[in-house]
Amino acid sequence: VTGGLGGIGEAIVNALHERTKKELGLIFVFDCVAESDERVQELTQKGIHYISVDLKSLESLKNGFKKMYALMEQLLPGAHLSLLVNNAGITKDSLALRLKESDWDDVLDINLKASFFCAQQALPSLIKNGNGYIISMSSVVGLTGNPGQVNYAASKAGLLAMNKTLAAEYASRNILCNVIAPGFITTPMTQKLSDEIQSAI
């Protein structure tokens, strides 16, 4: 699970943790905070594995998967990945006329580019497993657009096309690709929106 330390990602990790109490499995969380962070300590106490990854860096992302696969082989020899959850996402909101190139790049790099390259790194293990799942967290604004969020909306719409294509390529290998596009969810990210925007939503 990418971005598994807060918001929707944290809820996903907790749900998966409940599932692994009943069936054998390992959970890995990719996020960008130091391993000394209090939230990471809470994860490790539950037996959930944390790997610090800069999702904007392809090299860091690839290294994260290498560490994960090495740990999987060490802890559960012969295990293969069965599920990737592309959850990590950021916002850097601005009206289109004022949007900076860096704000466009940062949002697209984490929300869309990283999701694709995580899928690319996951696919060989999913295929070897004989089946698997890729779930990407989009947003309703990827379907409708939203003033002040042109970069975020574009990144979330991109996830739809990306997963439709991955599904078409790998359905024959039993890889199911789905996108979830929630509406407004109360998380630390949405709490940054002004009261006026929250009320309108």
Q: Regions with pLDDT < 50 over 5+ consecutive residues?
A: none
Largest sheet: 3 strands, parallel
Q: Please state roughly what percent of the residues sit in beta strands, choosing from under 5%, 5-15%, 15-25%, 25-35%, 35-45% or over 45%.
A: 5-15%
Q: Name the structural class.
A: mainly alpha
Shape: globular
Can you give the mean pLDDT?
A: 93
- The total of helices stands at 7
Helix content: 40-55%
Reading the helices and strands in chain order gives HEHEHEHEHHEH
The radius of gyration is 17 Å
Number of strands: 5
Distance between the termini: 27 Å
Strand order of the largest sheet: 3-4-5
How is this structure best summarized?
This protein has 201 residues and is mainly α.
What features would you describe in this structure?
This protein is mostly helical and 201 residues long. It is built from 7 helices and 5 strands, in the order αβαβαβαβααβα. The strands form 2 sheets. It has a 3-stranded parallel β-sheet with strand order 3-4-5, covered by helices on one side. It has a two-stranded parallel sheet with strand order 1-2. Helix 3 (58-75) packs parallel to helix 4 and helix 4 (101-129) runs parallel beside helix 6 (150-170).
Provide the fold topology.
Layout: H1 7-20, E1 28-31, H2 38-45, E2 49-52, H3 58-75, E3 83-86, H4 101-129, E4 132-137, H5 141-144, H6 150-170, E5 175-180, H7 195-200
Parallel strand pairs: 1-2, 3-4, 4-5
Helix pairs in contact: 3-4, 4-6
Main attributes of the structure:
single chain; 201 residues; mainly alpha; two-stranded parallel ribbon; 5 strands
